[in-house]
Structures are given as C-alpha cells and as structure tokens.
Amino acid sequence: MEKNKLALQLYSVRDDMKADMYSTLKKVKEMGYSGVEFAGLFGHDPLEVKKMCEEIGLVALSAHVPTKELLEDTENTVAAYKALGCQYVVVPYYKLDKDSFEQCVADIKKIGEAVTKAGMVLQYHNHDFEFETVDGKHLLDMLYEAVSPELLQTQIDTCWANVGGENPAEYVKKYAGRIPTVHLKDFAGSKSDKMYALIGIDDDKKKETEGSFEFRPVGKGLQNFPSIVAAATESGATWVIVEQDMPSMGYTPLECAALSAEYLLNEILV
Fold first, then answer.
1. In Å, how far are 12, 64, 74, 250 from 255, measured between CA atoms?
2. Half-sphere exposure (CA, 13 Å, Cβ side) for 11?
3. What is the total count of domains within the chain?
4. Per residue in 14-54, pLDDT tens?
5. Rounded distance between C-alpha atoms, residue 236 and residue 228, angstroms
6. Pairing mode, if any, of strands 239-242 and 121-125?
7. Structural domain range at position 147
8. Quick one: pLDDT band at residue 200, thresholds 50, 70, 90?
9. Which residues contact 55 (CB under 8 A, 6 or more apart)?
10. Which CATH number does the domain housing residue 34 bear?
11. What is d(CA 156, CA 150) in angstroms, rounded to the nearest whole number?
12. From CA 171, how far away is CA 213, in angstroms rounded?
C-alpha cells in the first residue's frame, strides 16, 4: 500500500472537527494523511467542505453516515455526500443480530440502490457483534451473502474483527475483490462488558478496571499491522483508514492521529 493512500476517519478527532473544521483538516494533512473519511459535517454545507478539502489538498474519500439518516431521507442524504465528492458512503453501525437480520438486509439493499444510482459505492463497517454465529456462519458473512457486491462492499474494521475472534489479516483476505477500504485500528486489553461505553453506545459509562479494553494509536497496541496492510494490498484495497474511537495513553485525539500516521508512513507503507 502506497503512502498516499492513507486516510483518517475524522470521528477520531470529532471534537476538534466540531470546534474548527478547516484548522483540523489542515492539521490532518500536515500529519501526512492524504484522505479523510467524514463522520458528520457539523452544520457545514457539503460544497463548503469540498472546497476546504480541495484547498488543503485532502481527498474527501468517504463518509460514515448514520443509518437513520440514510433511511429517513435517503435521496437528499446521498446527494449531499455526492456533492462533497465522496466515493464511498459507509453504514457505520447497525445493531445486527439474528432477530434484526432480515430488516437489516432490506435496509442495506434500499440504501445500496440509492448510493449505486448516484454513482458511489456503499460499504458496511462492522463491529464485533456481527461475528455472532448462526447455523455455523457469522452474521456479517450472512449479510454479504444476502446483499450483492453491486449494492454492498466491505469495510472491515480490523480491531473489531480481532475482538470478534477472527484473524484480521485472514478475514480481510476473505473479501478480496470486495474490500476497497480497510480500517486500521489498534487496541490493548480484551473484550469486556462495558467497552461500548467508550464509543457512546452503552448507557452505563462507569469507569472500567485497570487492564480493560482500550483503543490505542496504530502501532501502540496488539495488532499485527504489517500482515494486515499486506493483506489489504493483496485483496485489492485501495485505501487504508486510521480510526481511534477514543484517545488513550495520555495523548489528545490529534496526537493519537499523528502517532498513527508516523508509524504507518515510516514503518509500514511504501
């Protein structure tokens, strides 16, 4: 994977984006990132954001868009991200389980049809719960079997794949040819009951005990990124995207993003 195919998921620096989008995007570019994946526009017009990216020299690669927005106002939501210039629209979170599976398939097909019609590509971003097994198959694999590649591509989050019990590199290879982007996310610790409180999903946000699950800058945790990036390249991915849901190790979100870029650009990417 080439150095100029490194992007940052801007959820990683969401408070900075909310406070000053232009300044934050500029800092991201200065860290060495070539592209960005949005997670909200914070009241900015898509064309305004497109202009910011063009001025700074960042590729507005993709966007994580809440499923609710994509379903309730499909046409206008898709049009907004097309205007921004995104190549990919990503479903960032769907509480997929065996009871919601059929509804999920119907929803994804609806969104996929609209995104495809607009000339973009829909991707699904996993967490760990999609690795629940039903009749010997992961729900995530069942989803990709139920929805055609023409309507849905993968965006494997390699942290959650690991937490879900899979070898991230091998799981990326499983979707060779259907995986245009891969999320690079590092962590320490192990799966716990309250880890979703870290990303605002669990209402019970009590402080976890020492040694519990923690997101880390890329290269500072447990993941084998040489094998993951090699797998992404081998499988036809064209971009790798750094994401860190919460800062850690005493660093700010921007410092975490900078550390991840430094590691990848100096030690992994060519």
1. 11, 22, 36, 9
2. 21
3. 1
4. 999 999 999 999 999 999 999 999 999 999 999 999 999 99
5. 13
6. unpaired
7. 3-268
8. low
9. none
10. 3.20.20.150
11. 17
12. 22
